Amino acid sequence: MSPRWNPNPDIRTGRHVTYNLHAHLVFVTKYRKDVFDDAMLERCEEIMREVCGSFETELREFNGGRDHIHLLVHYPPKVALSKLINSLKGVSSRYLRAEYTGRINRIGLGSVFWSRSYFAGSCGGAPISIVRQYIEGQKRPI
């Protein structure tokens, strides 16, 4: 399927595959500690975009509150979602802990930034615009 004939930009093609895979991910800080401010959320989004790019995955939407973040990712079928999530959490933890050491130490997170658990939801049935609206609405006043 040629991209110029594709009326839906969410449908992507590879060499032997045509796909439209989206996942809604939610990560929570360890002990649900209120760690994020606006600047830290912006930096977290930059890190997440870089990691997604290295997986040939597109971060479509990002938002968060003081103790959690939401991501909407568009990913190819060759990407194991668990590996993407492991990398997103691991890389962001290393960078954020290095760049915001004083803030993180004051809050008392110890040596772990993210909770081990996470939410991953398939967005195959819901229109992406609805999922985007939901994520946009998750911003809590900081």
Automatic annotation (TrEMBL):
A molecular function (GO) term: transposase activity
Origin: domain of life: Bacteria
UniProt-listed GO biological process terms: DNA transposition
SMART domains to which the protein is assigned, alphabetical: Y1_Tnp (SM01321)
Domain Transposase IS200-like: 18-138
SUPFAM superfamilies per the UniProt record, alphabetical: Transposase IS200-like (SSF143422)
Alphabetical list of InterPro entries matching this protein: Transposase_17, Transposase_17_sf
Pfam families in UniProt: Y1_Tnp
Name of the molecule in the record: IS200/IS605 family transposase
